[in-house]
Amino acid sequence: MAVTPSFKEQAEYLVNILLGEEDDDNDHLMGFRCLQPNSESAEDQAIKSIARCLRETGDLIDKKHLISFTREFQSLAANHAMDQACELFSNTVNTIFQNLFKENEFAVEEKLLKISASLVMQTKKQIPGLIQEIGTAMINFIATPKLESWVRNSNGWTNIDIE
Asked: 1 lies in a domain?
């Protein structure tokens, strides 16, 4: 019987693909654990599809948020304060969400996922030397109970539709 990957491993796989090279199908370049099953499951295919859609989310981040975030994130990463860097990431995503959307809006979790992907992709351009650290911050953000329960309540990644 195949072992079902944990939600955190699935989050790592998604971030791996998101931060990987655009044309690369070897999605294990980032150094995170990689789920490379012998035959790809529907869930793995859905995660790949979501990651590729998230790459296309565009610029959802106001430049003032991005400049402030990248400056502070760099400082925390340089001081090896990853717990604080992950907290900064989460707080920044939530602040941007509150500035853009109403809390009671439908698909809150989808919007949080899109904002986090946008923040990661823009930060990757601004400070490419911290790809590992920004990837870790996004994994920690995705692997929160709120987003995990959203995916589970949707009956898995295969039923998540990122528009």
From this structure: no
Q: Distance (Å, rounded) from C-alpha 18 to C-alpha 55?
A: 6
Domain membership of residue 160 (yes or no) is: no
pTM over 0.90: no
Please enumerate in sequence order all residues whose Cβ is within 8 A of that of 117, keeping only pairs 6 or more positions apart, or say none.
18, 54, 55, 57, 138
Choose among 2, 8, 130, 139: nearest CA to 75: 130
Per the structure, the complete domain to which residue 118 belongs is given by 63-155
Angle at 75 between CA 70 and CA 79, to 5 degrees: 145
- Residue 156 Cα to chain centre, angstroms: 16
Pair of tokens at residue 15: 């971030």
pLDDT over 80 at 62, yes or no: no
Residues 70 and 140 in one domain: yes
Evaluate if residue 138 carries a pLDDT over 90.
yes
Give the CA dihedral 45, 48, 49, 51, nearest 10 degrees. 160
Residue type, 125: K
Distance set, CA 155 to CA 9, 15, 53, 83, 145 (Å) = 17, 20, 19, 30, 15
Q: Are 75 and 133 in contact (CB under 8 A)?
A: no
Give yes or no: residues 71 and 143 share one domain. yes
Alpha-carbon distance of 102 to 71, in angstroms, equals 28
